[in-house]
């Protein structure tokens, strides 16, 4: 099976490529934006890096040639002067859809986020909802997977978690009382590959989360205990964090904004976990954390 991937140098992309190589029967055309990004990809005869602009429908259609499925991973949480929610999350998805039509693509897999909604007052969640709408209305069979915080080696979530747990004193936004459903990045990659292989008919939206609910505060404490690090936790009031973010993001034309703070401090709510429906056996959180810490030890 041949698949095409956008945003292949992201943590999800890197993991997906590694799982595809392990599969043995999967080849991947890995779309990235630069030579530097291409150089960061795993090296394998099964992986063909391609530099592509997400604004160029013809280039996107070219990387899809001969592929059974396109996996669209590209997108941003933090805006900059040159990359906004509209351009990176919505317009790029629209280009992928147009390219999919041109290439006669059989299935689109879009990785989205819990809480995505076109009616959301949060700019990020609204843009992800708009991206979902573009895919759902494309007329191409599609699978949309909404994800929570992703944990595993190489993920931003794991880096932040371990970095926080390693401190002597850590101040958490709002006290870290938001409830999370951390998903092992390996489980997401396996779900993506499963969809590419089965290519369900029609368009479906799945909320795929981890097996355990836990507050971020409790998660930090748990990791600190695993590291045998005595940790004192304090609180940064959300109103102070949002005020500071509003000022700095306006001055810089991007960066951490009040919308970003709302996303990372909101509880992850799911109506029905899609693990059984997608044929995925979820990795226990304890095993995910052990993997992260083992990898961290090897790095040091």
Automatic annotation (TrEMBL):
An MF annotation (GO) of this entry: protein-containing complex binding
Signal peptide positions (record): none
InterPro entries assigned: ComplexI_NDUFA9_subunit, NAD(P)-bd_dom, NAD(P)-bd_dom_sf
Residues annotated as domain NAD(P)-binding: 7-154
Protein name: NAD(P)-binding domain-containing protein
Organism: marine metagenome
């Amino acid at each position: 099976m041949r698949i095409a991937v956008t945003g292949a140098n992201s943590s999800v992309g890197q993991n997906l490529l590694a799982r595809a190589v392990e599969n043995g029967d999967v080849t991947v055309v890995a779309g990235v934006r630069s030579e530097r990004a291409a150089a960061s990809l795993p090296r394998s005869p099964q992986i063909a890096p391609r530099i592509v602009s997400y604004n160029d429908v013809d280039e996107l259609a070219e990387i899809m040639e001969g592929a059974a499925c396109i996996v669209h991973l590209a997108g941003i949480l933090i805006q900059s002067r040159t990359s906004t929610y509209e351009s990176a999350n919505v317009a790029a998805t629209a280009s992928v859809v147009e390219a999919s039509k041109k290439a006669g693509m059989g299935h689109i897999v879009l990785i989205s986020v819990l809480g995505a909604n076109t009616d959301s007052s949060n700019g990020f969640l609204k843009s992800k909802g708009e991206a979902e709408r573009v895919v759902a209305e494309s007329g191409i069979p599609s699978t949309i997977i909404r994800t929570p915080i992703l944990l595993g080696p190489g993920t931003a979530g794991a880096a932040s978690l371990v970095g926080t747990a390693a401190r002597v004193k850590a101040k958490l936004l709002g006290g870290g009382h938001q409830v999370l459903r951390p998903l092992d990045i390996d489980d997401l990659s396996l779900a993506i590959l499963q969809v590419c292989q089965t290519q369900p008919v029609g368009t479906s939206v799945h909320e795929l989360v981890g097996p355990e609910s836990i507050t971020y505060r409790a998660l930090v404490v748990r990791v600190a205990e695993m590291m045998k690090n005595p940790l004192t936790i304090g609180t940064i009031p959300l109103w102070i964090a949002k005020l500071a973010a509003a000022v700095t993001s306006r001055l810089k034309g991007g960066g951490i904004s009040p919308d970003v703070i709302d996303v990372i401090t909101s509880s992850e709510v799911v109506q029905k976990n899609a693990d059984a429906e997608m044929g995925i056996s979820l990795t226990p959180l304890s095993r995910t954390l052990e993997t992260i810490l083992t990898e961290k030890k090897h790095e040091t």
